Amino acid sequence: MAISEPVRRILEGFDGERPGTKAKLASLLMHGRLAGTGKLMILPVDQGFEHGPARSFAMNPAAYHPQYLFQLAIDARLSALAGPVGLLGACADRLAGEVPLILKANSADSLAQEHDQAVTATVRDALELGCAAIGYTIYPGADRQYEMFEEVRDGIAEARANGLAAMIWAYPRGGALAHEDETALDIVAYAAHIAALLGAHIIKVKLPTERIAQHEAQDAYAGRNWRSLETRVAHVMQAAFAGKRIVVFSGGPLADQRELVEQVRAIARGGGHGSIVGRNSFQRTHDEALALLDEIAGVYGAAEKRVQA
Amino acid sequence: MAISEPVRRILEGFDGERPGTKAKLASLLMHGRLAGTGKLMILPVDQGFEHGPARSFAMNPAAYHPQYLFQLAIDARLSALAGPVGLLGACADRLAGEVPLILKANSADSLAQEHDQAVTATVRDALELGCAAIGYTIYPGADRQYEMFEEVRDGIAEARANGLAAMIWAYPRGGALAHEDETALDIVAYAAHIAALLGAHIIKVKLPTERIAQHEAQDAYAGRNWRSLETRVAHVMQAAFAGKRIVVFSGGPLADQRELVEQVRAIARGGGHGSIVGRNSFQRTHDEALALLDEIAGVYGAAEKRVQA
Amino acid sequence: MAISEPVRRILEGFDGERPGTKAKLASLLMHGRLAGTGKLMILPVDQGFEHGPARSFAMNPAAYHPQYLFQLAIDARLSALAGPVGLLGACADRLAGEVPLILKANSADSLAQEHDQAVTATVRDALELGCAAIGYTIYPGADRQYEMFEEVRDGIAEARANGLAAMIWAYPRGGALAHEDETALDIVAYAAHIAALLGAHIIKVKLPTERIAQHEAQDAYAGRNWRSLETRVAHVMQAAFAGKRIVVFSGGPLADQRELVEQVRAIARGGGHGSIVGRNSFQRTHDEALALLDEIAGVYGAAEKRVQA
Amino acid sequence: MAISEPVRRILEGFDGERPGTKAKLASLLMHGRLAGTGKLMILPVDQGFEHGPARSFAMNPAAYHPQYLFQLAIDARLSALAGPVGLLGACADRLAGEVPLILKANSADSLAQEHDQAVTATVRDALELGCAAIGYTIYPGADRQYEMFEEVRDGIAEARANGLAAMIWAYPRGGALAHEDETALDIVAYAAHIAALLGAHIIKVKLPTERIAQHEAQDAYAGRNWRSLETRVAHVMQAAFAGKRIVVFSGGPLADQRELVEQVRAIARGGGHGSIVGRNSFQRTHDEALALLDEIAGVYGAAEKRVQA
Amino acid sequence: MAISEPVRRILEGFDGERPGTKAKLASLLMHGRLAGTGKLMILPVDQGFEHGPARSFAMNPAAYHPQYLFQLAIDARLSALAGPVGLLGACADRLAGEVPLILKANSADSLAQEHDQAVTATVRDALELGCAAIGYTIYPGADRQYEMFEEVRDGIAEARANGLAAMIWAYPRGGALAHEDETALDIVAYAAHIAALLGAHIIKVKLPTERIAQHEAQDAYAGRNWRSLETRVAHVMQAAFAGKRIVVFSGGPLADQRELVEQVRAIARGGGHGSIVGRNSFQRTHDEALALLDEIAGVYGAAEKRVQA
């Protein structure tokens, strides 16, 4: 399929990147149900590492099978599947070429007592597995945030030199941040901006609340009405180089479908580039997950039906 | 698009390759008009290097523009465009993601007096340009053939380690080979076999004649009727690991369209994996080229129309 | 011996690994009394490092001799012997080819005050010694767990690139984990899952108790009866990519033979891939050890007698 | 299977090799029908490269399929299959662990006009493919023999450092040697000795004739009766460090079964370590090949039947 | 001199080591007064680094001269001289070949506040100086013990790859160990075992006391009478791969000659491989030192007189 106009405009925001990196971004944006719309739907499966297997998969035990997770991304015709090296390696061969892959190259577990992540994969792994992108989590605000930034920069630089795209999961956390600050509007926007400044092509943040956490930032946010999620999403997009970086938003833990779809509408209206839907997809049954993802895809403007001709 | 059955069967022949390499092969086989058919149509543009620019492009001066050549591959919805690093680099950025690319990593010119090629690009170039594959010419029979084999093996090993596919243009030439031996059936089959043994995933050879050049091989070919091109193509496929390697055939210099299409029919019936059409496409006008490529695609079983929905 | 069907099915779970790595896994699964059953019995001898020589070998002083330990693995026709570089190096030459070897490449001693291990061997050591696999301990939950994960990933990546298999001893320990949490069901399953995500082909965990240690995981385990060991083993297998990774269970300190064999029955019924039996074999006399290992092998379905024809 | 006495004695000849190299030699000597006898039967398939595909496979077209060749080695329960990287790579994954592999790492074609070989594979390839050994051809006497010796030494040193075994195909050829000199007794013995001095663990030579080619060597051979092949084989064994190196002999082009078996009897009586049987096996039908290999195995003392229990 | 039977038996314990490493061990075991006895007497001079020059040499100011120390080892016909790179470098040239050298490659000073050592020399230094072995100190139990183990493993691996032998000074220290624990029997045996597992060919420990320091080890030592030093030495030898590793014992600070010789008798009866005598030799006058070393050599069975024929 020829590159669509919406995708071409997004790619123009990446002038100066090597052609390979742009081609990888194009491969994500031109794949699946949302191909050509300029929107992305990504299935991330690192919750087994982050929260443990039973908390992630016991609700829908089929999801213990890596192949189930791949197949879900393929059946729902999502833009990409993201996961740690062991998970991608378990099916990348058998299902080579069926769905774009994003290698989640650092990981944390819930047994840890500090906010940090282990670097668990390399750009070489991503190339061998045929991934379109490599991704890293950063914890802006955490005691070890700068070490994380440095690890991530190393990875992004090597990824770009090899024609891959780079994604950052930007999760403010730790240090002086209270739990409710982690999704405060100023903090989420700040995290998205740091990710852009670190060179991410794709940025993943949580949906921001109305809260403004940094005292020094209060003035900057004063006098505007932040009550609508759409407005807050639009502000995060501003922080991501005025929308020149690709920003996707997450839904968090299993939630009501209507509520989720409302959020997606706000993301779309606010100019966000899409959704990353993990637990809300693989913790539902296969049919319920497809129904939800169908509805989300519809909001993002999918032209074609999920079922392939 | 989900991997089709014909493509899945081809990929099964590449058991043991890294997932990235398989995914790259899939990306060629699932792109363009022939997507999913298990056939390939490749536009190669290294004739400027090999024969000089005027001999290559004067007939259709638009083809002096690299972008014309890219656009031809895009408009005709071909499986891939192959060319030297300078040519690919001239447009890979602007047209990133529009057509799979194959980096022709060694090149020769017609000013040379020995049969050899210069290595003019690296796997790193291919990664930066977002190529699906890297390709090399070998001249079995030439005085420097073994140096060429060694250069090619280095390149293929590095390509595979980085999740790329590898293509070999296998052109018997030089040494004791007379000009008419270069397309002799035994020699073409031998060249395809050497390419497979050197680890090529995709092999390009010329269409073989009925001639048997090696005295010692006469017995092995005796008692069979090699008059039909289809039978000769089928024999070349045998030599390519019983058809487990992807073999595409070239048309050579500008030729009559009817004759060319007849050849394509023979390739298809003989089990070949497709055509590489250079001068016969870019030396025609854009419209004539598209008409020819349309007809070839039809023979290879393209289901959909060239014009995208 | 031709690869048996159970082994072939296990190898299919490793699609995408290099042929050398698969061949090494096959060499473990096709060796000794359990050859072809899809089960493994491994003799690990790193207790001298971990607990000190007298605590490990004083009960059966013959075991101070490295050759005794090799010979025990050979006589009992076990699947493999695992140990640190000095131990394997002491006999690998004289007994080359008699029993598959797994190089335990990091080690800790009981004089240490923090939960960590020293990297004491390299992939190059493993190649020189002719090992089938290289193995590492991780301590999920420990303060230094992420450094350990990174060391292990480096080792696994290099092992795979050289056609070796990789094993992880996954021992949750340290940080906020109480001693009894280390064998809690949720924690053991979590550790096995992390090992799989880090790319281990073979995972070693302790047998899990009924305890659920993580507060946040209680819900995921509620409403199911975890009283039988078999059910708990089956849950750990789920966490190891739905049984696609090879998981072996340990017996711990010297125990009663009947109790041990009961545990083995539960491992077998729960779908575990076998046992790693250290102190329970080499702290018994040679005859008692062989008798115990015979009985365990019988449970796992060894078809042939220990004594070779 | 425990290492047998005959194999143990052979391994003692390799004192000072790394354990991994010895274990790889043991894996060849303890595999298949001849396991434990101290004899080897190897299927080499590089004739496609050396002579061309039709001359090699047209007589038995099934042999164009790499998998046929693997399966022949597996069905006949041979000690190993040897071939170029492309051939081994075509099936090493699917058939991982079924038969030991020897990577033929240099290759020549019959289009060449000088006596040389291209280095077409690396030790890294051998490790990835799970090979037991890497092998090279040398042409003692050829104009480029010293370059070949240097390439081979590089490869052998790297192989040994990585725990692999090394094999040399020692074919005197070129320079001042007449065609009939290539199999002269003094020349074959000389070639075997050079291979041993270059560090080969396994040496492949052609069966020697009674001819003495070097004038200066006439005296050394005078006064002994070389009429029996057995005596000549025994002399070649002398030249291979008094039999401390493993020497296998080839049969050459397709020959009469009775004649071949007579030769095998002479090899066995002369103390040779076995046969390398290429064209005489894969140019026969599958059944005829198995029958021939059965008979050869019987001469070498195979205790068990080919059909596995 | 031909390798004696006792030395041959020791070398057999190093099966699998490269020939160069074995030859270096042989050069130590076949040099000086104890040549061929299977025993070693080593003069270590790193006390200047460890304790300061005056504390080391003021008692016998001649010992400030490096050449004095070399000459002492030469005159006493000791097995080897061990020291830091600067000390060996001061005389290795003039006295090349007079006495085997062991390069002490890490060092600590008494100004330090943590238990660690600096790596102060390389395998390359050892090769340039013509050393037979390279040596390292480890502090099992110290907070930085694992970093030390990793440094030592790197060094040993490189030493072996270059045909050198490796020695470990195993000194439990730091962490939870009380000063009197450092020579407790269980701890010394543990330290010797760790050194063996790390691949040391020669291990140096202090003479153990009757104390058992680790609570968990009490049972393993219960019910045996450890009162005689000989029995304790014999236990340490057990811990060193049942005596397959070379273990030498130190005398510590300047002591009474009779007491020292009694200790040596216990070492000899317990199966130890000899003594390392530093301060007790160079802090005595030259004549007294020679007299003491004569007596020790006599106990170890030196057949010949010190004065060379």
Automatic annotation (TrEMBL), chains A, B, C, D, E:
Keywords: Lyase, Schiff base. Pfam families: DeoC. One of its GO terms (molecular function) is fructose-bisphosphate aldolase activity. Its EC number is 4.1.2.13. It comes from the Bacteria. Belongs to the DeoC/FbaB aldolase family. FbaB subfamily. One of its GO terms (biological process) is glycolytic process. It is an enzyme of class 4 (lyase). The lineage of its organism: Bacteria, Pseudomonadati, Pseudomonadota, Alphaproteobacteria, Hyphomicrobiales. This is fructose-bisphosphate aldolase. PANTHER family: FRUCTOSE-BISPHOSPHATE ALDOLASE CLASS 1 (PTHR47916). The keyword Oxidoreductase does not apply.
